């Protein structure tokens, strides 16, 4: 209830009094929820999932205030960052020796943001500061909350969110005109894509939102067209990541009807990365049950997935793969990095490095690859940051029995592979929610070799 009320009030306050008032609402809610693990978790998850839908409903009132709208889209990150800042100030738990790398990592990323902002623009630098700190913040929040949220409460909590999200998707599929009219999707897209979005009625928007199944390109393109499904995040890929994460949690809790619902939703949304994120851990479980590759199954799936994407990308001249290559090449030519805001989809620069142009230019600057852009902007500094996130997560899943450990590890490996080929994979809706929920699952005693000892 706190999360729903907060995000609705945030959107209303932004419309009535400006984005500053909206952020004030978020700060007050975080302060109120602090010390109450489940309300805090609800606030974070609701902000991640429903922030854009709340703004979309109020989008007609924001059409002349693009600046407020742009800033308001960072609400979910603001909530995550505020919660973590309060934890740092009020709890020595978060400042244990093993977590000090986080503090140093954020400070280093901030230095690169200042450096990149001076070379490009500070808006782009701030966008990438957010993107690159989401994994760090979500991992720390997951560790803090995992042994403070009751397992049964967590199961009910995630079930409620899964039912709500699937219900919204069902309404959108069965009655798209009614859904998009109520949600204000057309006005939201006009604010999101100024200058490149000219549709002004719902019917034209629905007709123009058709795309090839799974969005395959070149010789692999399928002549099957499906409508874009936008969901609660008003973005197909972000919604698909949300559904994949919720689907994995339902599979973990053995709620197979909801799991099947999430799988069907992912097929309808037709986003490849989130679908693999859902399917690979489930397949890993059945492979381990057969007694095969108990330790290596997650890594075999991850490597096979990466190899297929790279081969497909090179064959079809896909910009996602060339973006990763450009980022890795920059580690050799400029190991100290270029600074945040240079290169990437969120950069304010006019970059002609899309598809064929990217190949013609040798993909000198990375796009569409979170890891490629991170390597380009942060240089070798990204290596210890990635290692820290990986070490903390693998340490959390180590006490689990093989089948549970394989499931949790496989999901995290696929999240990292997705980040190699997609900038969206580091967003709050993707890596943020995914890492948080997976770490919450590591706090459950079921599947462990021994019970978790709560943090004092």
Description of the molecule:
The protein has two domains: 1-90; 92-456, no CATH class. By secondary structure, the protein is mainly α. Helix 14 (272-289) packs antiparallel against helix 15 (297-316). 51% of the residues are buried. It has helices at residues 2-17, 19-33, 37-57, 66-72, 75-90, 100-119, 122-146, 151-174, 176-183, 185-192, 202-208, 236-252, 256-269, 272-289, 297-316, 319-333, 355-360, 370-378, 382-397, 402-421, 428-442; strands spanning 210-212, 225-227. The longest helix has 25 residues, at 122-146. The protein has 21 helices and two strands. The chain crosses the membrane at residues 6-34, 41-63, 75-92, 99-115, 127-145, 157-179, 256-287, 299-315, 370-390, 402-420, 426-444. Keywords: Membrane, Transmembrane, Transmembrane helix.
